[in-house]
Specification:
single chain; alpha/beta; Lambda Exonuclease, Chain A; five-stranded mixed beta sheet; four-stranded mixed beta sheet; 10 helices; about 20% strand
């Protein structure tokens, strides 16, 4: 696939491009399969990722009204049981499904240059004209707020909600100051990360996204990253002769990037389009 045939951008594809243009090329343009595991021990890490995906489904079922007692029976591993109990008892999440506007697994999209920018949200909750984006994380370690703030997910999710959130706000745009994003960590339930928003941040983020979209469209070169630490957890590293053995997931904060390598297939889900 050429870059001109590539039509949809997401926080994951943009993060890949920013981290390593070569990874972006291999994954999104060449559509190569993963030749290497992301982190060691491989089976343990794969199980953790699967449990994380299942945990997201449990929360979605809860938010659409299925009784928590019934969902608790489906938390069939030690991790899932712990995460689920933490979710039910978390102060920041109290009363979520009783809010007047609750949109779990919502997908928003909007034009971005020659592309379409899309994002699937774990939850958008609206109350008194304010929109809060919730994102559930099952990281083994609680990341630094500075790391989260710089991630494309934080920038894309807030900016796109401002840009394309009229559908869930009675036809009116959200002002940036009405938007907040909260990362909630299943293993650190009392340490959520809050990111409010401002008009200046929104302008900076949207301008940056437009610039990246234009760069992706016009580029013909996909250099490897100079930061070899990013290669340790990249499943494409063998294509680039950047090592064969994966890094240990318990030894570096960079393991959190590995969990985000699974992107959403936007061709198979509905969307709220702008």
């Amino acid at each position: 696939m050429s870059v001109n045939q590539f039509t949809t951008l997401s926080q994951s594809s943009l993060q890949d491009y920013v981290d390593c243009a070569r990874r972006f090329q291999l994954r999104y343009l060449d559509k190569l399969s993963y030749p290497a595991v992301e982190s060691e021990p491989a089976l343990e890490n794969e199980k953790h990722q699967q449990e994380g995906e299942y945990f997201h489904r449990l929360i979605q079922q809860y938010l659409v009204g299925i009784p928590s007692r019934q969902i608790s029976k489906m938390a069939n591993s030690a991790n899932l049981q712990r995460w689920w109990e933490n979710f039910l008892n978390a102060k920041v999440l109290k009363g979520l499904r009783d809010l007047p506007g609750v949109y779990p697994e919502a997908t928003l999209s909007a034009p971005l240059g020659r592309y379409r920018l899309m994002a699937k949200y774990d939850l958008i909750a609206v109350k008194d004209g304010k929109a809060t984006v919730f994102d559930w994380k099952t990281y083994r370690r609680r990341p630094r707020n500075e790391w989260l703030s710089a991630r494309m997910q934080t920038r894309v999710y807030r900016a796109l909600l401002v840009h394309a959130g009229t559908y869930i706000n009675n036809g009116t745009n959200f002002d940036p100051e009405q938007v907040e994003m909260i990362y909630w960590f299943a293993d650190f339930p009392d340490e959520p990360a809050h990111f409010v928003y401002t008009s200046a941040q929104y302008k900076r983020d949207w301008d940056t996204l437009l610039k990246l979209a234009e760069e992706i469209h016009s580029t013909s070169s996909y250099p490897l990253t100079d930061d070899r630490q990013k290669c340790v957890f990249c499943p494409y590293r063998s294509y680039c002769e950047r090592g064969i053995r994966a890094g240990n997931a318990d030894q570096a904060e960079a393991e959190m990037e590995a969990e985000e390598l699974f992107d959403v297939n936007f061709e198979q889900i509905g969307e709220i389009a702008f």
